[in-house]
Fold each of these.
Amino acid sequence: MAREATIARTTNETSIQLSFSLDGEGKAELETGVPFLTHMLDLFAKHGQFDLRVDAKGDTHIDDHHTTEDIGICLGQAIKEALGDKKGIKRYGNAFVPMDDALAQVVIDLSNRPHFEFRGEFPAAKVGTFDVELVYEFLWKLALEARMNLHVIVHYGRNTHHMIEAVFKALGRALDEATMVDPRVKGVPSTKGML
């Protein structure tokens, strides 16, 4: 069975169509209206070997907040749906990724208990026109809607772009690891018998 999902979300602020495949080739077709987010999602898909298509229209004439947040919501919902019953998955993923001066770590538990922790400080408030605080908003909504426990640690860095890039690459790699099917796992990887 294909591990993929398509999500549509329309509000007074945004209209989003998103398709996601866990077992992809790292291909991304992205029209987000938020150039820096487009760049980060492209990295996420490439390094996680996911196929991701996003067609988003939002009130970016105000700012990028609603569009960024709502794409995070849709991607989280797509991840949850694509995982199905989670039988046979590894469940946990951990990735360290360096990007020049920056080092980021992302740790994931696909536990069905949403939680988000972020440690790190970005030296700049903006990358181009993108408000850096939206990285937190995107990741928190992603974790909430995917019902994952997501820990993001930016260990160090000087360049904000590099630091965020390391986070999104690590996110892709950690999610890829957590969603891999392990033939040794019988049923769901939990002593509770469900996730």
Amino acid sequence: MQMSEPLSQKNALYTAMNRFLGAVNNMDQTVMVPSLLRDVPLDQEKEQQKLTNDPGSYLREAEADMYSYYSQLKSIRNNIEWGVIRSEDQRRKKDTSASEPVRTEEESDMDLEQLLQFHLKGLHGVLSQLTSQANNLTNRYKQEIGISGWGQ
């Protein structure tokens, strides 16, 4: 059961993160045997096109199966819930601080605001796509094990 969200909250980053986390948690609870996802193509139509168009394409995209998406989505969920490793953040700060040109405070404030807006829009879009992928993976898993109408 989904609750209707006010229009102002529908596009909020927090709401998008909660939708993503909910979709991944649902996926995690539904997928009881993740190893069944190995070698299952992400999209059946794409798989048919690969087999007919380019005989070597399956080798290049061998890792693009549902299990790799499952692992990736769970990893992203863990990063959102628990944060990324602190040492990676410190390393990035050192790399960016060494290469930044000197700016005035007013320019920095304006740049930071624009930069924040840019990243928030991008993050919202990425979270929406990841939520869709988690829901699709859950539905495909249900189809694969024969419970496609269960739990809706």
Amino acid sequence: MDLISHQPNKNPNSSTQLTPPSSSRYENQKRRDWNTFCQYLRNHRPPLSLPSCSGAHVLEFLRYLDQFGKTKVHHQNCAFFGLPNPPAPCPCPLRQAWGSLDALIGRLRAAYEENGGPPEANPFGSRAVRLFLREVRDFQAKARGVSYEKKRKRVNRQKPQTQPPLQLQQQQQQPQQGQSMMANYSGATV
């Protein structure tokens, strides 16, 4: 009886089959975001090529994505403007959350360079995009009554040792009449 089969191994867990390395969740999301942006450029009127894309086109894309948002952002004239938990529904629009837009821009910025775009011409890192994201963050924070202030690092405050006044320090450092410089160092007195 032949124990070794001469047929190809059909076991999916076998080490003889080559499987492509599984991509991380981040890489998959980055690829989907990149494909969505490229499709947006193709559907743009007139169609845009990637090298001709600028920060203004990225802003158009972000505004386009706003229609698919799920975050309620109150208008300034809404009665619930500035309330973190409004007590009733209102007609204010649903928008993309700032955190989602910020993460999206980060992924697209990386994807642009991975797909051959020069870092110095990256439209996702343009000043206009950075300013837009900052404005969205600040407005959404005001609309919800939440602040996004940067947390400052805590300074490790140790209680400073009290030091004698400068004149007293200088007097202690000068050798007394008849003492050597080493007398203060060793703690010996003459």
